[in-house]
Specification:
Blueprint (H helix, E strand, L loop, with lengths): L1 H15 L3 E5 L2 E5 L8 E2 L17 E4 L7 E6 L2 E7 L7 E3 H6 L7 E7 L2 E15 L2 E11 L6 E3 L1 H4 L3 E5 L2 E5 L1
Parallel strand pairs: 6-11, 7-10
Antiparallel strand pairs: 1-2, 1-3, 4-13, 5-6, 5-9, 7-11, 8-9, 9-10, 12-13
Length: 174
Amino acid sequence: MRLAFCLLLLLPSMAAATVFKCDDNGKVTYSATPCGDNAQRLPEADGDQPQQDQTGSTLTLYLRSDHSFRAPGSINSHPVEFVVDTGSSYTVISQRTAKAVGIRDCTSMGYSSTANGVVSNCVAIVPELSFGTFHLNNLMVTILPNLPADGLLGMDVLRRMKVEQRGDVMYISN
């Protein structure tokens, strides 16, 4: 009886490790259970994927229906969602996010060339930025006034890590 109870407790954690991908007329869905007749089981953490290193710091991200990889994180302990943007030279946050996390002062003002043209910006120092199991202190970020996302993780952060993409899955590790 005790063994059966212990196995029941483990079932949710074992099920969470499996991810299925379904394509329903161009709408891609990821689920812990088969989400349709065309459900494709994504590889689990075995020989097909990078293993977690000794510190357990491999972050696995799945391509979303908007064709972006997003990582949950925080700035100054305030929850944010970052878009992983290998095309951005610098880490960027929205003006809305900067205000929410308590950034009041800019170290400099300038202009940034973005996909939507040239916009004014503000550069500031973020005391704490985290995503997955990664933590950075005193990071310089660019603040853009009309950025629709909370933030973009740019190459100034990503170049410090190993970033690997296999199909619709991205792995970020030390």
